[in-house]
């Protein structure tokens, strides 16, 4: 889930699905799921069969779609597919297309996943093309199984063209957009060697057929062919889009479009450990870059802050004891927290601080001690300090003489206390968010049991920045014992 926070903001899978609920609703999912020692339900993501079952159950649970995914075909990753569709929604809204939207899915695959999702979600009309006979047949079955023939029409492509075959017989064909998930590789060797050894291993198992993954010239040549054909049919499709699997190919394609003066924009599709890219261009009078600009803030990799927690006599190296103590400290600071992952001796929490409760702790303790001291020690009043009874009305605002005299205080003490309070408020407000919805600090907090217990803090976002997280870390270190 490393990149989930960068998903499209409307993607329902920013919050991971409830596997426990799925195991109750669907016996098929219960059969492939398993429970760890903490009772958490999970699946083996490296098992292609488990991935197929998960995807089928999510499609049924979240979209009421019955989809059959063949064992020898690609299992569509729903967060990625949704990211793409949501970006298309943004593009359509930007050019003020809201009704009777018509899309073209190039290479729709056995699941026809894009037309199915867009039809049930947005009531968009779709034409899906497919060159592989088996995938085409299965796609037709999936459309019919969900009674979506009214919205989705599938066309077999027996030519070497990508778009041109659609317009040979019908000059009336018009589309608001096209979308495509092209084959990424030019041959099997490129597929096997595509992943850098420096990257983490893939979390998911491998699925897909050679027809879906390999094409002559690879992804770059395939996308370049779409661009070449788009020039001929610039009046047939308002916005051309494609997914790009390799960032270096995206850079080349952006340069191709720029050199020809074609208006374009792009985006990132982030999910799990995988990043893909979306590329869009048009020949119409739309400045796509201005209407739907690329991601405004560059995604940065945040290195976690790691330090060793001081030993506690009551802790005895127990990560559970450390977790309970950590929860108590976060509660004192009014920092929201929830457990994201709990595996063996590693526990990860998501923490959100809405206000600065950790600064000026010494000053706050001094003020508290002084207040408690003032409450215990009676004051000695001089004659000038005495509050004299009012002979006409011996009550002030409903208070008795005694109550009124007890409210007197030393002015110098009040000035000092008020000055410190103001300074404290000023220091706190200096990092307060101007946007009430934006937290001061949003981070991952991880307890790791090795020889001793380590605390890892990874900054995600927040207007207080990494400095705010460092202050929280300092508070934890200062108060751990």
Q: Please give the alpha-carbon distance between the first and last residues.
A: 33 Å
- How many helical stretches? 16
Structural class, from helix and strand content?
Answer: alpha/beta
Mean pLDDT: 78
- Placed side by side, the strands forming the largest sheet appear as 5-4-3-6-7-9-8
Strand content: 15-25%
What is the tally of beta strands?
A: 14
How would you describe what is shown here?
With 481 residues, the protein is α/β, with parallel strands linked by helices. Among the domains are: 77-190 and 201-291, Vaccinia Virus protein VP39 (Rossmann fold, 3-Layer(aba) Sandwich); 305-357 and 432-479, 2-Layer Sandwich (TATA-Binding Protein). The protein has helices at residues 19-25, 27-32, 48-63, 78-94, 113-122, 133-145, 188-192, 210-213, 218-232, 247-259, 288-291, 319-332, 361-376, 401-406, 411-429, 465-479, and strands at 33-35, 41-43, 102-106, 125-130, 152-156, 175-180, 237-244, 263-271, 274-282, 305-308, 336-343, 346-353, 441-449, 453-461. A 7-stranded mixed sheet has the order 5-4-3-6-7-9-8, with helices on both faces. Helix 9 packs parallel to helix 10 (247-259). The protein is elongated. The model is unreliable at 185-214 and 379-434 (pLDDT under 50).
Relevant terms:
7-stranded mixed β-sheet, elongated, alpha/beta, 481 residues, TATA-Binding Protein, single chain, 14 strands, 5-stranded antiparallel β-sheet, Rossmann fold
